[in-house]
Amino acid sequence: MTDLNKLGQNAAAVKSLLQTLSPEVKNKALCLAADCLVKEAEYLIAENRKDMETAEQNGMSSGLLDRLKLTKERIEAMAEGLRQIAELPDCIGEVMEAFERPNGMKIRKVRVPMGVIGIIYEARPNVTADAFGLCFKTGNAVILKGGSDALYSNLAIVRVLRESLAKAGLPEDAIQLIADTDRQTTVAFMRLKQYVDLLIPRGSARLIASVVENSTIPVIETGTGNCHVYVDKDADLDMAVNIIYNAKTQRIGVCNACESLVVHSAVREAFLPRLAAKLREKKVEMRGDERVLEILPDCVPATEEDFAMEYLDYILSLKTVDSAEEAIEHINRYNTKHSECIVTENKDTAEKFLTGIDAACVYWNVSTRFTDGFEFGFGAEIGISTQKLHARGPMGLKELTSYKYLISGNGQVRG
Amino acid sequence: MTDLNKLGQNAAAVKSLLQTLSPEVKNKALCLAADCLVKEAEYLIAENRKDMETAEQNGMSSGLLDRLKLTKERIEAMAEGLRQIAELPDCIGEVMEAFERPNGMKIRKVRVPMGVIGIIYEARPNVTADAFGLCFKTGNAVILKGGSDALYSNLAIVRVLRESLAKAGLPEDAIQLIADTDRQTTVAFMRLKQYVDLLIPRGSARLIASVVENSTIPVIETGTGNCHVYVDKDADLDMAVNIIYNAKTQRIGVCNACESLVVHSAVREAFLPRLAAKLREKKVEMRGDERVLEILPDCVPATEEDFAMEYLDYILSLKTVDSAEEAIEHINRYNTKHSECIVTENKDTAEKFLTGIDAACVYWNVSTRFTDGFEFGFGAEIGISTQKLHARGPMGLKELTSYKYLISGNGQVRG
Predict the structure, then answer these.
(1) How far is the C-alpha of B246 from the C-alpha of B57, rounded, in Å?
(2) Which positions of chain B have pLDDT values less than 50?
(3) What is the pLDDT of residue B222?
């Protein structure tokens, strides 16, 4: 079994150095790491194939298989992600605020690394490189715990990244992988509070619930996305069909995919047959309430569970409402605070929706698929936060930092 | 036993309304609440006296008794705190960032309330009014769980505050107090994740450890302060005596009080006798390492535990070091990441200390007693965060908010 305390000590030992590396040194190391990944693409794909074969034998769903797979293009994208991170401005040391108090003491609020970040994730090996890049750029050491499904892929990626650090004359322990994937090790990792400042779970709702239940380390919940598109009575119906088709089918295994359609009763007759015709192209199964079934008799009847479900598959639930208020209420009841969309030409209704919906990202006439650090222009992302503490929505570099106050004076004491 | 789900539902029911109250309505309600507290001072002091008598009978320490006590002046200060909060700018709805992406979608990052905030605290009844004021101003509902030592005081304060809300025509459930103070209720409260967005413990190290251990709600750790003052070889020794005297004795029962002195060996002979003479005025017990004992033979020998202790009493531990680096190492090993101070006239040494120390607030030639929301000019404070996630150091209004992204476009889909 992995000696987690040893990993914690390794990370602690490199923390001070990482915190003080110059932007130039970090960026050079990131580009070198990118080059090494591309150079080792064949090795990475060969190791990934071992994981893919096991996953196929175990009957993994198509959505999850898609997440697991490494291709030359995806490795290029990983490397490009690291290069993009190198291009981004360095925020460590930034003076966020500076002010003076009446007693003459000067206060500066300065951005600093978190310290050591732990990441627990499932079958997405690209997270390994992303996580390293973002944590390294922000002066953090990272300890990764990937899923058993991606073990060979992750071991290979981490090996390449550690070798690239050594080549750059930097400490390999800036990135460490926990090689044991059993539950006991995972739970012990969640309690490594002495060494880990922040724990980020990425993966299924079950994984995230387990981290929330067990962790004593501060957590940022990420990723579970039961995302809705609401088609208002004043919607441009062509636009609505396009947005739902995109949000549902462009990539099904991702958290910002649409899982549920909410439709205003006034447009259901005009809209639902057009939508059904389009979704048939991708064989999307539709599960609707009674008023949807009146229009689409072939539709599967939806249960209460359907409205709460993140399918990550070619399935869509459909709910009819009689007002935008009812849509807001329905969505706030069933959503996971991730990404929600209204399609309408009515500005007032849109404003009501944007204000009333409790979610990280609320869209007006835009596909929910854009909830993503790259799409937001953050250069990359470590995950999509669905909690309200510290970070919400796509998390980029700044979300991996903290701050401290530096106060200077000439002997001030409190009266 | 309190029906915590009911309390959660009550808070949830007023959440949307609180979120949309205008600044004027909120500020008027805060001033009315302040007036009511002052008007009811005699009632509050009478109720507080019940708590004080029990506490004295139970042999509560002088530091804790000081925290518990309500006086006319402290009630005025509570009311003044609420009025100051009313004066502060309203940050809810603030557009924190606005940008457009190449595909034409417009993204706004907008400040929103957390929603429902839970606060678990011990024998400081002034927290009750502070917590209400800050949470209400930021559009949050608050559920409070005070200590059994302050039960009568807290019931009285919450009663006055709820009555003031009713007078203002606003929902009383903006503030709720859990009247049961048993451990079972407290632990159940820590798991009310369905309704509570953020949990803030304020109190002893033991309370905070219990919240970290048991909570499934995101937590901000606050308050435990094993604060150090390091007297460098280049220190102005008069300033050093003043700062330590202030940081140690001005108010002993608070988290930003100095608990430990670290002294450079080169100045121990010149400095320690002067310090001892000054601290004798307040009968401070000094516990030193061997090299301190050489200079101050009357000093109690310090143990390893002394260096890790938050005394909250007239006791000071003393450690000798041979360099600023050794001081930094010692402090980073034993501190609670709260407030640390260097006294030196050497700018380079000061910069090394400010960078190297891992704490929310690092002081150069200023007393640690200034780590406080009022002293920082935040208008009030809900606590001092000692963690790195979300908020660090004194927490004012903005630290009680989250944000969401609002994205608008004209039919953008992801390619």
Answers:
(1) 31
(2) none
(3) 86
**Whole-number average pLDDT of chain A:** 95
Minimum Cα–Cα distance from B378: chain A residue: A101
Query: With contacts defined as CB-CB under 8 Å, which chain A residues touch B366?
Result: 105, 407-409, 411-412
Regarding pTM above 0.80, the answer is yes
Residues A153, A45: contact at Cβ < 8 Å? Answer: no
**Exposure of B57 by Cβ count < 10 A (0-12 exposed, 13-18 middle, 19+ buried)?**
exposed
Q: Report the percentage of chain A scoring pLDDT > 90.
A: 88
Q: Does B26 touch chain A (CB under 8 A)?
A: no
pLDDT on residue A253:
83
Distances in Å between the Cα of B234 and the Cα atoms of B239, B240, B244, B323, B345 are: 12, 11, 16, 11, 6
DSSP H or E stretch at residue A214: helix A205-214
Contact: B414, A370; criterion CB under 8 Å = yes
Number of inter-chain CB pairs under 8 A, A vs B: 183
Stretch A329-357: mean pLDDT: 96
> Based on the number of CB atoms within 10 Å of its own CB, is B290 exposed (0-12), middle (13-18) or buried (19 or more)?
exposed
Q: B210 vs A256, A338, B124, B221, CA distance in Å?
A: 36, 30, 18, 11
Burial class (CB in 10 A: 0-12, 13-18, 19+), A48: buried
> Contact B74/B126 with Cβ under 8 angstroms?
yes
Would you say residue A280 has pLDDT above 80? Answer: yes
Q: Which one-letter DSSP state was computed for residue B266?
A: G
**Chain A, window 314-373: residues with a beta carbon less than 8 angstroms from a chain B beta carbon:** 350, 354-356, 358-367, 369-370
Chain B residues 95-134 within an 8 A CB cutoff of chain A: 99, 101, 105, 107, 114-115
Dig out the tokens for A240 from the structure: 């609505």
**Of B111, B113, B112, B116, nearest in space to B197 by CA:** B116
Check if A33 contacts B (Cβ < 8 Å).
Answer: no
End-to-end CA distance of chain B: 55
Closest CB from B364, B388, B404 relative to A362 = B404
Crossing angle (nearest 10°) for helices A41-57 and A23-39: 60
Are B393 and A405 inside 8 Å of each other by CB? yes
Closest among B332, B335, B339 to B393, alpha carbons compared: B339
Note the pLDDT of residue A16.
86
The answer to whether the Cβ–Cβ distance between B388 and A213 falls below 8 Å is no
| Phi and psi angles of residue B158, each rounded to the nearest 5 degrees, phi first | -65, -40
* Those residues with Cβ within 8 angstroms of residue A405's Cβ, 6 or more apart along the chain or in another chain: A107, A108, A109, A110, B360, B361, B362, B376, B392, B393
Q: Hey, are the CB atoms on B414 and A375 less than 8 Å from each other? A: yes
CB contact under 8 A, A414 and B219: no
Which among B388, B395, B400 is the top mutation candidate for probing chain A, defined by the most A β-carbons within 10 Å of its own β-carbon?
B388
List, in order, residues 6 or more apart from B351 with CB less than 8 Å away.
none
Taking only the tens place, the pLDDT of each residue in A100-150 is 999 999 999 999 999 999 999 986 898 899 999 999 999 999 999 999 999
CA atoms within 13 A on the CB side of B86: 18
Q: Which of B101, B354, B369 sits opposite A377 (nearest CB)?
A: B101
**Chain-centre distance for alpha carbon A7:** 25
* Beta-carbon contacts of residue A128 (< 8 Å; ≥ 6 apart): A144, A146, A153, A154, A157, A158, A161, A177
Residue A304 has pLDDT above 90, yes or no: yes
Say what angle helices B23-39 and B151-167 make with each other, to 10 degrees: 130
Residues of A in contact with B376 (CB under 8 A): 101, 107, 405
Is the Cβ pair B404, A376 closer than 8 Å? Answer: no
Nearest by CB to residue A216, choosing from B213, B355, B388, is B213
